Inverse folding.
């Protein structure tokens, strides 16, 4: 999987492989079934690529890698799959990177927060406690929130050392 942030720091942020990848895909299948949705082959393939990457991936890289060395996907196929995975909470769109990442866990419609390394691109999903505070402030203004994204930029532990 090509990755746009190449730095010389030594670190390991590979995604899932082998059994761990199978477990991740099985968990996704269970969530689709629980939601009454189908994990169609294109949806499964896009999720598989995101899980394997373990970091944010741009849509055009997913389109190129979709066929695994064969023909690239038709862009709408990948965009529809990303839309589905995002709605179900199996993947998140990271606005500031214009990229997508497999969900690190969490239920339907959970607030997602990301720590993003601006040097190597390593990105981690965290559970934001700030979400409840934002919801409280929103409610005080009469807003009902449907989504909350927190994208924090900085340097990861490896790039700092
Ligand atoms: Zn998530
Ligand atoms: Zn880094």
């Amino acid at each position: 999987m090509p990755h746009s942030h190449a730095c010389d720091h030594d670190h390991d942020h590979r995604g899932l492989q082998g059994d761990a990848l199978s477990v991740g895909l099985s968990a996704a299948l269970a969530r689709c079934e629980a939601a009454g949705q189908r994990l169609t082959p294109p949806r499964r393939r896009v999720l598989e690529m995101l899980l394997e990457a373990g970091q944010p991936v741009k849509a055009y890289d997913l389109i190129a890698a979709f066929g695994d060395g064969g023909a690239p996907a038709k862009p709408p196929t990948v965009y529809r799959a990303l839309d589905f995975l995002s709605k179900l909470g199996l993947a998140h769109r990271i606005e500031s990177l214009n990229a997508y990442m497999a969900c690190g866990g969490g239920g339907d419609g959970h607030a997602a927060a990301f720590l993003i390394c601006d040097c190597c691109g390593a990105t981690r999903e965290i559970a934001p406690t700030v979400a409840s505070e934002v919801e409280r402030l929103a409610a005080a203004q009469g807003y009902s929130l449907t989504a909350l994204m927190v994208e924090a930029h900085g340097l990861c532990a490896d790039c700092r050392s």
Q: What stands out?
A: The helical segments are 18-34, 41-53, 59-65, 75-87, 130-140, 157-160. Residues 9, 117, 119-120, 122, 155-156, 158-159 surround zinc ion (ligand 2) (CB under 6 Å).
